[in-house]
Amino acid sequence: QLECITALDPDVLVVCGDHATPSYTSSHSWHPVPFLIKSKYSEGSVDATFSEIPCRLGSIGPIKAQQLMLSVLAHAGKLNKFGP
User: Fold this and answer.
1) Are 31 and 62 in contact (CB under 8 A)?
2) According to the UniProt entry, where is the signal peptide (predicted)?
3) Contact 11, 29 (CB under 8 A)
4) Quick check: is 16 in a domain?
5) Within 13 Å of residue 17, how many CA atoms lie on the same side as its CB?
């Protein structure tokens, strides 16, 4: 199924879950949710594993959920430049 999406050549591809479900709780939890962002601006490792610990140590690191959409827009080149 992923090939159907990548064939569309999106500016950004985001993979994430909607909640954490640690094996030791067998239920939804407050724990961080791993995510992956792929774009021409991405700096992550191509051989990384997609799971909680490698994602926590990835190039973006832990962020608040509210920051995710801004990061996606930035990776798509859709934000205006800001700062001095």
Assistant:
1) no
2) none
3) no
4) yes
5) 15
Run of H or E including 30: none
CA-wise closest residue to 6 among 39, 34, 33: 39
Q: Calculate the CA 24 to chain-centre distance.
A: 24
3-class secondary structure, 82: coil
> What is the chain's length?
84
Domain hosting 51: range is: 2-75
CA angle 53, 33, 62 (to 5 degrees): 65
Contact 61, 40 (CB under 8 A): no
pLDDT tens by residue, the chain, 84 residues: 788 988 999 999 998 877 777 777 888 887 778 888 889 988 776 666 777 777 777 777 778 888 888 889 999 988 887 655
- Report the number of distinct structural domains present in the chain: 1
Structural domain includes residue 53? yes
